[in-house]
Amino acid sequence: QAKERGKNNFQFYSSNLNGISIRKMEMETGLRKALEQNQLVLHYQPQMSLITGELVGIEALIRWQHPKHGLIAPLEFIPLAEETGLIVPIGKWVLREACRQRKAWGTLGYHDFPIAVNVSVRQFEDDHLIDYISALLDEFDLKGIHLELEITESIMQNLENSTIILNKLKELDVLLSIDDFGTGYSSLSYLKHLPIDKIKIDKSFVDDIIYHSNQGKMVKTIIDMGLNLNFSVIAEGIETNEQLHFLKENECKIGQGYFFSKPIPADEMVEYLLSGNEKNGGIPF
Ligand code: C2E
Ligand code: MG
Ligand code: MG
Ligand code: MG
Question: What number does the ligand 1 atom closest to the CA of 62 have?
């Protein structure tokens, strides 16, 4: 292709850029279709008490069941959805589907745990979010505490506005957690002034704890400070016994990761719940 146009680097470069924007446009069209044609699905990952081994929460994670390309991971399409604003209708779909599923699990007798949903900044700042969530809780007859919103530290960049939104959400009694904690710019003492319930220690810290004692100290510091400030603290991305052991030793009370279960479809989650797996998560307590 570059040859056809001569050895003009600039032209090659710009045609390449066009290639990228065409792919993006195709993907955007595809995503709109995905929303209309029910190609989006939620998978679910359990959050376990590291003290009793019981299931204490479930995180909903989106996937795109593409007719040609199979199951597509969120990191492949959520950034584009954020860029184009499509995250707002997609995010609404996620919230509604998660509430519907939470209601269905409640009907089966599983009442106690909240369902956690990831909320992008753009969605968080959308004027209709609060009314939408309030209407969903009514529609599915859920209490606020049945729903947990995972937001990232990036909302701190617009602190004044975010504080207002967080306070309004808290009036609905929904639980608020900070996802990927430690990768952004906020400090725990800052978060103390906001109605935050929980912090999720980012997987990257958990990955390293067994290899580097400094990372271990860091994780221990986050846990201690979090508990002192009255946040629940959950560790993401637990894969090994060693990591679990370290976290338990250092009084982290909740965990999530492949060690317990990968994210799984709703019907498998029901089997997981029924199997009594949630009673101990396979941990010898
Ligand atoms: P996240 O919210 O931090 O979710 C945790 C990610 O780590 C998930 O990836 C999960 O499958 C993965 N994970 C959990 N435990 C382990 C483990 O032990 N080992 C490893 N290697 N990975 C683990 P996933 O599902 O691909 O989601 C990636 C990110 O996409 C999420 O990160 C979240 O930021 C975003 N996302 C997912 N669903 C939604 C959604 O419905 N809306 C929005 N706005 N973002 C979403
Ligand atoms: Mg999350
Ligand atoms: Mg996370
Ligand atoms: Mg993460």
Answer: 38
Q: Cα–Cα distances in Å, from 154 out to 25, 180, 243, 283?
A: 27, 10, 27, 35
In the chain, what percentage of residues exceed pLDDT 70?
A: 90
ipTM over 0.90: yes
Provide the β-strand partners of residue 8: none
DSSP for 148-175, please give it: EEEEEGGGGGGHHHHHHHHHHHHHTT-E
Ligand 1 residue neighbourhood (C-beta within 6 Å): 45, 61-62, 73-75, 78, 87, 91, 94, 118, 120, 150, 179-180, 203, 236-239, 256-258, 263
Helix (H) or strand (E) holding 190: helix 188-191
pLDDT band for 257, please (50, 70, 90 cuts).
Answer: very high
pTM metric for this prediction: 0.92
82 CA closest ligand 1 atom index: 44
